[in-house]
Amino acid sequence: MADQYAQTREDNRPAGSPAIRWEEPPEGPVVVLLDQTRLPAEEVELVCTDAPALVEAIRSLAVRGAPLLGIAGAYGVALAAARGFEVDDAAAALAGARPTAVNLSVGVRRAQSAYRAALARTGDPRQAAPAALAAARQLHQEDARASARMAEHGLALLDELLPGGGHRVLTHCNTGSLVSGGEGTAFAVALAAHRAGRLRRLWVDETRPLFQGARLTAYEAARNDLAYTLLTDNAAGSLFAAGEVDAVLVGADRIAADGSVANKVGTYPLAVLARYHHVPFVVVAPVTTVDLDTPDAGSIEVEQRPGYEVTELIAPQMPATGAGSGIPVAPLGTQAYNPAFDVTPAELVTAIVTEEGALSPVTGKGLAELCARSRQAASAT
Ligand code: MRU
């Protein structure tokens, strides 16, 4: 079991340490995670010494958010290789830990391919292991660069859509530095608007059932001195009706070839509200989130989470260890519908902002061109 391999480190976390990092203490390499299930109550690190510990951290959402899942998957493969475990088994377990965010399998594949190529060249697993680590580190750095570019393009788009500044932006789930090698996706755009003096308010959906908005986005907004207000997910409608929302900015877990966007459950109702109230609905995601192999909305596998996440309140001070570990908010035995994501059709999306620029209108052809441009840019470097 993962508990054998993952230890928590509560006492010596350096201030402002990243969501994920690779360390090489004398006992052997480890992947160190900021345990997001414990935020904002405590900043506790989780030290993973093998891939099963990382798989458990992914399932429990200690590490989460599409771009960071990709980075974690790549480091997980590097960890298996460096510790002499069976790399293909580790890669399969990591890639299958959560189904919706395509970044996870993309990150795993990248480190696995680098490892396989080095193994074919050298014939020696020990010599091949550094190639997997180099691939993970490269993905990590690329994600940081993509994040900065998305923030630039996203801010330019906001200024174009909403001339005059004073933006009041609504966001859902958590899309900041906790999910990224850089400052995130949608949150990075809000942060850029704040730094440019053009963000009047960030409306933060609490994001039921696991409160990624309340626990994590509010935490990141506070640390960055943003003017932010938390609301329950179902208060969004009246906020739109009151004319208090100028734009919606969200991330994505997978963007299908036809432009359908899978993101945290509750995103689709926001897109419907935005359309009704003539408010731009903008998705911010790196090109690694676009999956041209998934043709449309119906082909996206939406993760179903356990019912106890809905029937019980899980506080960060009391990390969930399964049914019965939270405070019951429904009668014992109540069944719950708990999809982790929903899918928004392209026609409701005003623009998709990637590191390659903003795509509007969102069409399959436009997405394919964007991905081709990104591939060309990558092969030129
Ligand atoms: O279940 P989670 O917390 O991993 O879901 C995360 C989201 O839905 C984010 O909005 C998405 O990954 C985009 S993050 C840049």
Question: How would you explain this protein's 3D organization?
Answer:
The protein is of the alpha/beta class and 381 residues long. The protein folds into two domains: 4-143, Up-down Bundle (Four Helix Bundle (Hemerythrin (Met), subunit A)), CATH 1.20.120; 145-380, Rossmann fold (3-Layer(aba) Sandwich), CATH 3.40.50.10470. Helix content is 40%, strand content 17%. The chain has eleven helices and 17 strands. It has helices at 51-59, 66-82, 87-95, 102-122, 125-161, 186-195, 212-223, 236-241, 267-276, 308-311, 364-380, and strands spanning 6-9, 20-23, 30-34, 45-48, 167-171, 199-205, 228-231, 247-250, 254-256, 261-264, 281-284, 290-291, 312-313, 327-328, 341-344, 351-354, 357-359. The strands form four sheets. The protein has a seven-stranded mixed β-sheet, sandwiched between helices. The chain has a four-stranded antiparallel β-sheet with strand order 1-4-3-2, with helices on one face. Strand 6 (199-205), helix 7 (212-223) and strand 7 form a beta-alpha-beta unit. The protein is globular and about 65 Å long. Residues 11-15 have low confidence and may be disordered. The protein binds 5-S-methyl-1-O-phosphono-5-thio-D-ribulose. The site of 5-S-methyl-1-O-phosphono-5-thio-D-ribulose has 18 residues, from helix 2 and strand 10.
